[in-house]
């Protein structure tokens, strides 16, 4: 990966991007993997995120993101500044909309990305999944049924 440290090895720099609620809970559930990495989180400044990410390095993104062009542009600029400053070895997200600008910027900078589709959508793809797919190095799903929605995916099993 362009001479970057192996993101599966200890001490890789990982950027974990997720909206609050279930998206953040699914990222938190990956703790056995991310706990040994240098990490920075991107989420929304909400009570659940403040509680779950206490003591973590966090960048607060702008919300809401759904159909909000001003916040999309703010988050795009935030992604440019954050990804360029941190130069993570890997960007990981479970969605939602806040993931899109971070995946685009990571793709432009040739930083690998991993997208994990949420566990509660097995009959149709999510909007964020569809938008992030072209910019995703590894696309993971939590149910075998989700593989019919996205080509070339890896089933990782349910996170919650």
Blueprint (SSEs and pairs):
Blueprint: E1 13-18, H1 22-28, H2 31-34, E2 38-44, H3 47-52, E3 58-61, H4 69-86, E4 90-95, H5 99-108, E5 113-116, H6 127-132, E6 138-141, E7 153-155
Parallel strand pairs: 1-2, 1-4, 2-3, 4-5, 5-6, 6-7
Provide the descriptors you would attach to this structure in a database record.
6 helices, 32% helix, globular, Rossmann fold, alpha/beta, disordered N terminus
Describe the structure.
With 160 residues, the protein is an alpha/beta fold. Helix 6 links the parallel strand 5 and strand 6. The N and C termini lie far apart (30 Å). Helix 4 packs across helix 5. Mean pLDDT is 92; it is low at 1-5. The longest helix has 18 residues, at 69-86. It has helices at residues 22-28, 31-34, 47-52, 69-86, 99-108, 127-132, and strands at residues 13-18, 38-44, 58-61, 90-95, 113-116, 138-141, 153-155.
Please sum up the structure shown:
This protein is an alpha/beta fold and 160 residues long. Helices cover 32% and strands 21% of the residues. The protein has a seven-stranded parallel beta sheet.
* Assigned CATH superfamily: Glycogen Phosphorylase B
The CATH topology comes to Rossmann fold
Fraction in helix:
25-40%
Q: For the CA atoms, what is the radius of gyration?
A: 14 Å
Pattern of helices and strands = EHHEHEHEHEHEE
| Helix-and-strand structural type | alpha/beta
